[in-house]
Amino acid sequence: MKHVLVGVFVLLSGTAFAQSEIPFDSTPNFLKGLPADLYMGEASGVAVNSKGHVFVYSRGNTSGPAYAATASQILEFGPDGKYLREIGHNLYAWSFAHDIRVDRDDNLWAIDKGSDMIIKFNPAGRVEMVFGRKKEASDDGAEAWKRVNPPRPPVDGQFRQPTDVTWDTQGNIFISDGYINSRVAKYDKTGHWVKSFGEPGSGPGQLNTPHGIAADAEGNIYVADRGNRRIQVFDPDGKLLRQIKIDVPIPPDAMPWMGNKPTPEQASNGTMAGGAPWTVCITPGPGTQYLYTSDAYPGRIYKLTLDGKVLGYL
């Protein structure tokens, strides 16, 4: 958890650094006060609201079988790190946590990869909007979506392992969808379907596991196109504006967080490639905005200008 919170504080920073490594402060054991029977598991997402409250989307406190168990819960902590509450306990949408975001009105949005659902909570913690729907447990052969070739055609309003959410200046909602559909879904601010853009592939505007999404002050949409090792930037209508690639040399002694060390081919292309974006965040305005992203190997956080110049990394 220490490393997750370090990432949060770095992502919230808006200051430019000339040196290659981003300075940071660490606060050990920041989160505290969990009830005796409540445990934090793998933290798949962290968000902070305007009051400084920290929301951790955790895969802890699982229930069910060893595989396909529910692993999705939101824990809220105060600015001092003290535990406040759990949000959405035993919610129907909970299956497998992926990411969490806070919008400009302090509403909380949870993206559950396992149930294919995105849930909007108001600041009081009550459900206000639901996007997508999981398969019915009572249906014959109900199971998680499988990857098939050729891919299944996407269906308006239906998600297949979604990953993240963002909003443009008009309040339109953009959902990265995700591991299977490899597209971006757009809704208006009232939750009505507008369109989708992107499709599976490696060409300009095509996507391969869009794993994160964010918007700048002009409403442009930045998509972490992880499988293609790039960030693609679109206007709010889905028109491709530019592509960003991160090419920072990997240290020869770098080791993966799990498994064998990637081969030279794996380290230069695909999900485990250096600079392949697993996340994307943009500092709020007014003033100069900065783009932050991270990779799995060698496991760095990068700070960039919005046009893609690397300013530093951690």
Automatic annotation (TrEMBL):
<keyword id="KW-0732">Signal</keyword>
<dbReference type="Pfam" id="PF01436">
    <property type="entry name" value="NHL"/>
</dbReference>
<keyword id="KW-0677">Repeat</keyword>
<dbReference type="GO" id="GO:0005576">
    <property type="term" value="C:extracellular region"/>
</dbReference>
<feature type="region of interest" description="Disordered">
    <location>
        <begin position="141"/>
        <end position="161"/>
    </location>
</feature>
<keyword id="KW-0325">Glycoprotein</keyword>
<feature type="signal peptide">
    <location>
        <begin position="1"/>
        <end position="18"/>
    </location>
</feature>
<dbReference type="InterPro" id="IPR011042">
    <property type="entry name" value="6-blade_b-propeller_TolB-like"/>
</dbReference>
<protein>
    <submittedName>
        <fullName>SMP-30/gluconolactonase/LRE family protein</fullName>
    </submittedName>
</protein>
<dbReference type="InterPro" id="IPR001258">
    <property type="entry name" value="NHL_repeat"/>
</dbReference>
<feature type="repeat" description="NHL">
    <location>
        <begin position="194"/>
        <end position="237"/>
    </location>
</feature>
<feature type="repeat" description="NHL">
    <location>
        <begin position="152"/>
        <end position="190"/>
    </location>
</feature>
